[in-house]
Design a protein that fits this description.
Layout: H1 4-28, E1 32-35, E2 41-44, H2 54-71, E3 75-89, E4 96-113, E5 119-122, E6 133-137, E7 143-151, E8 158-163, E9 190-197, E10 201-220, E11 227-236, E12 248-250, E13 256-263, E14 271-275, H3 278-291, E15 297-298, E16 303-305, H4 308-313, E17 322-324, H5 336-339, E18 347-351, E19 354-355, H6 362-367, E20 374-381, E21 386-393, E22 395-396
Antiparallel strand pairs: 1-2, 3-4, 3-6, 4-5, 5-8, 6-7, 7-8, 9-10, 9-12, 10-11, 11-14, 12-13, 13-14, 15-22, 16-17, 17-18, 18-19, 18-20, 20-21
Length: 397
């Protein structure tokens, strides 16, 4: 094109139509772009989905700081001390003989106040050594004596009473608050963990999300070499380290949703917590105060999770649920299970409205209940080959 005027006009027209068609295409894709006065690019699709901007991030940061500040006085470090044998030797190191004992710190964990009188909830494996002594240290540096009151027979929980130098219970602690129902938890929910990292760094705060729900793991205690099967756990990517056992896991409303209990030692960002609700914890407190022990609701039945392989071997059409084992002691005498007519070979497919699949077991459902609660079960009866509705009232053990 040798005419410069015509070339200029065509260039302007080309730019105009390019801009016009680009805007039409973006609108068809459901995007309208603006730039706010703070310089943050925001966008909104035609469905009205919420956008993340700088203000939202600042609000999130403020929430985390607020929760950490609020919870910090309620979270304590638990220092484990024990008499350790000492030895004397000759200058060449050939011979050893006992020379006495010395009190040393051998470990540590975390706990948190659940009553104003200084009752602390922590993990059972943190305070399981009857030969050890336990010192409770607050975020403000106050030191108290801890006495283990009770262990939970069904999961990794323990109650420790805190005493002052005069041997009196405390009276002015700030207890944490709990969510009403852990069933409202969803994968992706933000959460905060606060505790004693590596038994050294008190009240360390970490942040993450709910990575998964209903996890089952076999947790091992490096000190006692004992293992325990834990089910129905919350999986989180919030940084958890040795010494973090007993950390409260908290939502952005400052409500405790669980207690950190284990990590995957061969991975990063794999922590597990026991879910906790207000009703469950209040029952535990009442049980300890009333009887000095933790008593739990029970059905009185031995079950095993039904898998497709097990179902195939037994020629069953049902492939999920809790299978009542074929054993003489599968049903405890005079238990709620016996009174409800449950039998070996029956399959419990649902409890309290929750299907027993994807790692969720009857034990997980009952854990959140208290003795005297009535629950409804859906049971496939071996005798009739049909599914029935069974109601039973939970007992106490």
């Amino acid at each position: 094109m040798k005419n410069p005027t015509i070339l200029f006009v065509l260039t302007i027209l080309c730019a105009f139509f390019t801009t016009l068609f680009s805007n039409i295409l973006l609108q068809d894709m459901g995007y309208t772009g603006t730039r706010n006065t703070t310089g943050t690019v925001t966008g909104q699709d035609t469905a009205g989905n919420i956008k993340i901007d700088t203000a939202s991030i600042k609000n999130l940061s403020a929430s985390v700081k607020s929760v950490a500040k609020k919870l910090s006085p309620s979270v304590v470090s638990i220092i484990i001390s024990k008499d350790v044998q000492t030895y004397k030797t000759d200058p060449f190191g050939f011979f050893y003989e006992p020379s006495g004992t010395v009190r040393k710190q051998i470990g540590g964990g975390t706990g948190f106040f659940v009553t104003k009188e200084g009752l602390v909830l922590t993990n059972k494996h943190v305070v399981s050594d009857p030969q050890a002594s336990y010192t409770i240290i607050t975020a403000g540096g106050e030191e108290f004596t801890g006495k283990v009151l009770a262990f939970d027979p069904t999961t990794d929980l323990a109650m420790v009473q805190t005493y002052d130098v005069d041997g009196k219970k405390l009276a002015d602690r700030e207890p944490v608050s709990f969510v009403n129902d852990t069933d409202t938890l969803e994968v992706g929910d933000f959460l905060i963990a606060i505790g004693n990292a590596l038994a050294e760094f008190k009240n360390t705060v970490t942040f993450g999300v709910v990575s998964a729900l209903g996890r089952t793991i076999e947790a091992g205690d490096m000190g006692t070499q004992e293992t325990e099967l834990l089910t129905g756990l919350i999986q989180t990517d919030a940084a958890i380290n040795p010494g973090n056992s007993g950390w409260p896991l908290v939502n952005l409303d400052g409500k405790v949703i669980g207690i950190n209990t284990a990590i995957a030692s061969n991975a990063t960002g794999l922590g597990f917590a026991i879910p906790l609700s207000e009703k469950e914890v209040q029952y535990l407190i009442h049980s300890v105060e009333k009887s000095g022990t933790i008593k739990r609701a029970f059905v009185g039945v031995r079950t095993t999770p039904l898998t497709p392989d097990i179902a195939k071997s037994l020629n069953l059409t049902i492939t999920f649920g809790d299978l009542i084992v074929n054993s003489p002691d599968a049903i405890v005498a005079k238990s709620p299970a016996e009174k409800a007519g449950l039998m070996s070979g029956d399959i419990i497919t649902e409890a309290a409205g929750t299907a027993l699949r994807d790692g969720i077991t009857l034990r997980d459902i009952v854990k959140d209940k208290v003795p005297g609660d009535e629950i409804t079960l859906k049971v496939w009866r071996k005798k009739s080959g049909k599914e029935e509705i069974v109601k039973l009232t939970l007992g106490e053990q």
